[in-house]
Amino acid sequence: MYLFEGLRQQLAEYLPPDQVQRAAAAFKLAAEAHKTQKRRSGEPYITHPVAVAGLLADMRLDHETIMAALLHDVIEDTEFTQEDLAEQFGATVAELVEGVSKLDKLTFNSKEELQTENYRKMIMAMVHDIRVILIKLADRTHNMRTISHLRPDKRRRIARETLEIYAPLAHRLGIHDIKNELEQLGFYALYPWRAKLLESQVKQARGNRRELVERVQKEIETRLADHGIHARVLGREKHLYSIYQKMLHKELQFEQVMDIYAFRVIVDEVDTCYRVLGALHNLYKPIETRFKDYIAIPKSNGYQSLHSSLKGPHGIPVEIQIRTEEMNLMADRGVAAHWLYKTEESSGTTAQVRARRWMQSLLELQQSTGNAFEFIENVKSELFPEEIYVFTPEGRIIELPQGATPVDFAYAVHTDIGNTCIGARVNHKVYSLSKPLETGQTVEIKTAPGSRPNIAWLNFAVTGKARAKIRQYLKGQESLEAEQLGERLLRAALGSVSYDDIKVAEFERVCAEVKLESKSALLREIGLGNMMSVAIAKRLLGELQQPKDEQVVTAGNQRSLSIKGADGLLVSFAKCCRPIPGDDIIAHVSPGKGLVIHRRECKNVRGHEDEPGRYFPVQWDNKPDAEFITEVRVEVVNHQGALAKLTSNIAASGCNIHGLKTEEVDANIYYIDVALTVHDRKQLADVIRHIRKMPDVQRVARLRK
């Protein structure tokens, strides 16, 4: 229990004693469950869940989250089940643990699929209960702190995943403490040289700037004291990864990034924020375009603050953030701060309500996107929102990511408005649908009934919702068109029989045979080219059960051949199994090649019972007059003239040799693969008997590929 003592003290600061006891019971079970396990670093495994719980206790999270953090690897790595945990600690804790475990134990065919599906599951778990993701973020933070014990390739993979998904996720949920730490640790793990070099440059630059920072801080403090404003003034350091990102994406020199001096002023209440702003605008000249009021319009993750840029002494730019203590806590802990400040308001200003709204939009996105890759691409764009705020004509504020266009706005208002949008007016002037919007504009969308989304919109639509809805609509249209085309093809294939005369029962029978759920699905498959209209027409007319008469079909470049029940279809013979009359056969229906005839035992048509729509029963006619190529393998002792004897023997049996391949098995045994032309199985059997009588032949058999 000594490992639990530090955590016990942390919890005792803000939780009642009975809840601390319950957390101690969870620790006991976790310690027992993990007692034989060690981490890569050689420490007992239990140190990891304790550290994760400690991170969450720093955020002052509720006792259920702390218990779930202590138990988060128990279901995955030990004998204990969700039911066991529910029995001891209640259903909520067990569900949280199960939610965290689910994110880790998925199996997939490819690395990309694994990653994508993992992220999708994680976001879905979040929608269910956001505490799952808080535990996951704390888990990832502790794993990143101890990442040096992993193999370099694994280290890079985990670091990249951290920078691409987990850090932006923490940012999106407003938890900047964790976001900053994940970025810092991820940067060092992924680009160790760049991080070290940048760190030494920053240290040097800070040394040179100290005097100026102290002077600006003093001037701000003095000015606020003169106005009777009580405030804390902090010099704000940019952390390494954000310096690196600025240099990378804005193509700035290191000196340009480090030129900016940033300060944070923290006060007691909202009114004072605006008084501070007035005092500082009197002290230094504000830079006109660089003022943002996130108190009146909070960011989508609940972040609130006043931002202003000023011209300080010697014209150096000074960035100021002004906020209250509560806003500061929200900025650092985001959604997690909700458990400390249980506010009753539901206006959507708290991080929790806003995060829920965002997660709800993710849930809608998940339901309308076709696959996990598309979903994650959309979510990645949603994780990095630099928001703009625009107005509807009624004055409602719509929040969109940077670069959003009127099309994104239309879908944000309502899906139907997006689908029927034909143009836009911005600030009462006609505006191109593909042109990005800017904060403060009033946007009016023109719609027309019967108009439909344009595929070109996908080139400039930015939000996940707009892209998903456009795709969804276009897919729906495609399937409707495919169904209409399928019906036209089937009508043509039925020939003299009227499509409208075919009974519903016949369609139901054929749908059951080809394993499709409805008539429209059947027509769609024909229209998309996945099924042949002629083959389906035959099934509908019942011709497959009793072929009525012999139909003559042209078989590739051979003479005409009678196969029953295949009129009007191109027929070819599979090279893999080389069927000949007398073989038990089945036809594979290939929209490009017509019917491809295989032997039933051929491995390429194995499982044809499971896909009846792709296969077509066929029979040989009794009087074929064509010749077919088949192959036999002869195992022969290598005497001089053995090959000559074999070929003359085959010629004597009345067969043509189409081709020969030889292969040495060992010093005196050869395989000879002979391609022959025969009329049917009987003639092939005669040839095989003929060859078998030869003295040097060990074995002869028909070749199977």
TrEMBL record:
Span of domain HD: 45-144
EC number(s) on file: 3.1.7.2
Gene this chain is encoded by: spoT
Annotated keywords: Hydrolase
Function per UniProt: In eubacteria ppGpp (guanosine 3'-diphosphate 5'-diphosphate) is a mediator of the stringent response that coordinates a variety of cellular activities in response to changes in nutritional abundance.
The name this protein goes by in its record: guanosine-3',5'-bis(diphosphate) 3'-diphosphatase
Pathway: Purine metabolism; ppGpp biosynthesis; ppGpp from GDP: step 1/1
GO biological process: guanosine tetraphosphate metabolic process; nucleobase-containing small molecule interconversion; response to starvation
InterPro entries linked to this entry: ACT-like_dom_sf (IPR045865), ACT_dom (IPR002912), Beta-grasp_dom_sf (IPR012675), HD/PDEase_dom (IPR003607), HD_domain (IPR006674), NT_sf (IPR043519), RelA/Spo_fam (IPR004811), RelA/SpoT_AH_RIS (IPR045600)
ACT domain ranges (all copies): 631-705
Top-rank lineage group of the source organism: Bacteria
GO cellular component: plasma membrane
DNA-binding found in the keyword field: no
Pfam families: ACT_4, HD_4, RelA_AH_RIS, RelA_SpoT, TGS
Domain TGS stretches: 386-447
GO molecular function, one term: guanosine-3',5'-bis(diphosphate) 3'-diphosphatase activity
Enzyme class: hydrolase
Keyword Cytoplasm: no
Family: Belongs to the relA/spoT family.
Species in which this protein is naturally found: Pseudidiomarina terrestris
Reactions catalysed: guanosine 3',5'-bis(diphosphate) + H2O = GDP + diphosphate + H(+)
